[in-house]
Design brief:
The structure holds two protein chains of two kinds. Chain A contains eleven helices and 14 strands. Chain A is of the alpha/beta class. The radius of gyration of chain A is 21 Å and the shape is globular. In chain B, the strands form two sheets. An eight-stranded mixed beta sheet of chain B has the order 6-7-8-3-9-10-12-11, sandwiched between helices. Chain B has a four-stranded antiparallel beta sheet with strand order 2-1-4-5. The chains are: A alpha/beta, B alpha/beta.
């Protein structure tokens, strides 16, 4: 079966005054119809740039997609022109961002913003678009949707704005919803509402979802497949249970160990990862995690490991077998 | 708990921010009831957590306890002295003993000052050290927060977020305080850096005998770092207990919902967990709901709940809660 989306060796860089930022450095993954993929990693590791590249939303200059293919239903999106890409964006693949205020137009009513997309993409009439907008607002749980149609974004709370963004993203029934940290700025109670909503809509509409976050808790409850990113590379990927029960990359392992849990009493000292995340302007030649890694061997400083299987559907990029502590 | 084990006693504390209208003659037309009558003790050398949704009054509570805001009502008794009655020199003297660490390690440090100047500021303000003694003290503080003492002449932009937070901690420690309000000290940091800063705060507490009021969003980290935890909703504390008691046996419906919303990094546990999804947002603190302020979102609300405010009481063993059903 051919996947719905296949990303191959994608690489994106930014040419800035300080030098070249190696934001995404050759990542590959696939997404099947209706599947949920989680992308986790710390801030600055290239999560947003990787999906903005898929959507062809990288500001160019300073950015540039320097290599790779993004194959959606058999078509390489990186070869399309802007007009063709506009047909894909929103209609086939839709995106929800971390800060809804930056993606909503502050001087247009909520209703108008959604219905205009429906008129443009779906060829609906004014009345059809209006009725459908109210339906969508109801679907994402905005109370008194018909009355709130005429409200402006500032009249909505952060959680409600994020619901509006989801309504807008869903307006054209996309096959893929990309959610880039949509709940990071929200309270846990509102985050739970949004996750619940996306899960219900995903199951009802059969969309595939790519959910980006730095929170390993969210991904545990939401994703089937997980990608762990570090310094613009995928360092580990696998089925959700493999990643959490049997993490094999030293970074994933250390990250999971450093997290306290709400459901467990903890007396011990937290495990820490020494040092700092790397500077993407100046990546070391070997493994990007080497300066912070307790498993490091000589080879790690010279050669950057490629992804290789450690189980069925489970891959890591590491020279060492963490179960034995020896070079594999 | 006996009196001498209490460092900070907060009694009926309120902070209202006036809402005014009019350009020339300002009239007060209402008030934001950010903190609306909170009562609790903070024990010596403990870490008391303060949690709740955004806007519920955590920062305002912290700042009002430190007298950075003048309270609208109520008292704060610090080591036996009523802070609300202190003035001038007596207050300045007391201030040395209470400090604050802020959420944003970028905004809270003056970008034009060297690290040395930033950290020594409390030493100058309180006239605690000058000249070579001051330099020595700054170096000692840097070592204490595990930064290289050679950094003293650098500027904030030369440091990472975690390092800047250490500088903020060093500044807070300069006047040898007993009590520190930590207002979301790790929220702005990367996941892998958060554990480093939390361990540092714990070590400093052991080493220097500090007492913390720890304000945070991350309920998992609060369970790790705190001894007791207080849950705030719309300007009031609704529940307070020892941490394991609170997390394992939450009694207030709001605490139950809040805890159930926190995701656990374990797919097997997540599949089995039941979430209590709260409807809607926190109501406005300008016109809080009548009776129990949580009744508009509480799945267990009864008729009584909208009419009468539930009393704040100890239901046994220092587990405090305000709910009609408990
Ligand atoms: N200086 C002020 N003037 C007027 N209103 C204020 C002021 N400071 C805070 N408020 C209001 O008081 C309420 C409590 O605010 P506070 O900052 O204490 O909340 P918080 O619990 O710390 O929230 P967060 O988690 O977002 O930091 C909010 O409604 C806020 O808008
Ligand atoms: N418009 C831009 N110009 C220059 N550098 C950028 C730009 N956008 C992102 N970057 C850099 O690319 C890297 C990856 O960023 P990003 O994908 O946003 O990280 P995150 O994983 O937090 O989403 C970072 O080093 C970031 O500073
Ligand atoms: S390749 Fe080497 S340095 Fe990199 S994660 Fe593996 S053991 Fe650590
Ligand atoms: S007093 Fe009533 S409304 Fe308030 S928390 Fe208890 S049951 Fe819910
Ligand atoms: Mg991002
Ligand atoms: Mg605050």
């Amino acid at each position: 079966m051919t996947p719905l989306l296949e990303v191959r060796d994608l690489a994106t860089r930014f040419h800035t005054l300080d030098g070249t930022v190696y934001a995404v450095n050759g990542i590959s993954y696939t997404l099947e119809e209706g599947q949920t993929l989680g992308i986790v990693g710390e801030s600055g590791c290239g999560k947003s740039v990787s999906v903005l590249s898929v959507m062809r939303l990288i500001p160019e200059p300073p950015g540039k997609i320097v290599a790779g293919q993004v194959i959606y239903r058999g078509q390489d999106l990186l070869t399309l022109d802007e007009a063709q890409m506009r047909q894909i964006r929103g209609k086939e693949i839709a995106m929800v961002f971390q800060d809804p205020m930056t993606s909503l137009n502050p001087v247009l009513t909520i209703g108008r913003q959604i219905s205009e997309a429906l008129i443009a993409h779906m060829g609906m009439s004014q009345e059809q678009a209006r009725a459908r907008t109210v339906e969508l607002l109801e679907m994402v749980g905005i109370p008194q949707a018909a009355d709130r149609y005429r409200d402006y974004p500032h009249q909505f709370s952060g959680g409600m704005r994020q619901r509006v963004m989801i309504a807008m993203a869903l307006s054209c029934m996309p096959s893929i919803l990309i959610a880039d940290e949509p709940t990071t700025a929200l309270d846990v109670t509102i985050q739970a509402q949004i996750i619940d909503l996306v899960k219900a809509l995903r199951d009802r509409l059969g969309m595939a979802v790519i959910w980006i976050t730095h929170d390993l808790g969210i991904i545990a409850g939401l994703a089937e497949k997980v990608i762990v990113m570090y310094a613009g590379f995928i360092v580990e990927r696998g089925e959700v249970d493999d990643i959490y029960d049997d993490p094999r990359h030293p970074y994933t392992l250390a990250l999971l160990k450093s997290l306290p849990r709400v459901d467990r009493s903890s007396q011990e000292r937290l495990a820490t990862i020494p040092g700092l995340p790397p500077d993407l302007l100046d990546l070391p030649p070997g493994c990007p995690f080497a300066p912070r890694c307790i498993y490091r061997v000589e080879r790690c400083l010279q050669e950057n490991p490629q992804l290789k299987p450690v189980g069925l559907h489970h891959e890591i990029a590491c020279w060492v077998d963490v179960t034995t502590g020896r070079e594999q | 708990m006996s009196d001498d084990q209490v460092l900070v006693r907060v009694q009926g504390l309120k902070k209202h921010f006036p809402i005014t209208r009019g350009i020339i003659i300002q009239r007060q037309v209402g008030a934001v009831r950010a903190v609306d009558g909170i009562t609790f003790d903070i024990y010596r050398q403990e870490t008391l957590g303060l949690v709740g949704e955004s806007g519920c009054g955590k920062t305002t509570a912290g700042r009002t306890i430190l007298q950075l805001y003048r309270p609208t009502a109520g008292r704060v008794i610090f080591d036996g002295t009523d802070l609300t009655s202190l003035k001038g020199n007596a207050m300045r003297h007391m201030r040395q003993r209470m400090q604050m660490i802020f959420q944003d390690p970028y905004a809270s440090l003056n970008p034009r000052m060297t690290i040395s100047r930033i950290i020594s500021e409390p030493l100058r303000v309180h006239k605690l050290a000058s000249g070579p003694e001051q330099v020595e003290r700054v170096q000692e503080l840097l070592r204490l927060v595990r930064l290289n003492p050679r950094f003293i002449n650098r500027y904030p932009h030369e440091f990472s977020g975690g390092q800047r937070q250490r500088i903020g901690i060093a500044r807070a420690l300069a006047s040898n305080p007993d009590f520190i309000v930590c207002d979301e000290p790790i929220s702005a940091l990367d996941v892998s850096i958060q554990a480093q800063v939390v361990n540092l705060l714990e070590d400093l507490q052991d080493q220097l005998g500090l007492t913390y009021l720890f304000i945070a969003h991350d309920l998992s980290m609060v369970r790790h770092i705190c001894d007791r935890v207080a849950v705030m909703y719309l300007g009031l504390i609704v529940e307070l207990a020892a941490k394991d008691e609170l997390y394992d046996h939450p009694l207030h419906p709001y605490t139950q919902a809040l805890l159930s919303a926190v995701p656990v990094p374990d797919p097997k546990v997540e599949r089995k967990r039941r979430r209590i999804i709260l409807e809607g947002d926190v109501p406005s603190p300008v016109n809080p709901p009548s009776g129990c302020r949580f009744h508009t979102r509480c799945a267990r609300a009864q008729e009584l709940c909208s009419q009468q405010e539930p009393a704040w009481r100890d239901v046994g063993g220092g587990h405090f809660v305000a709910c009609h059903l408990v």
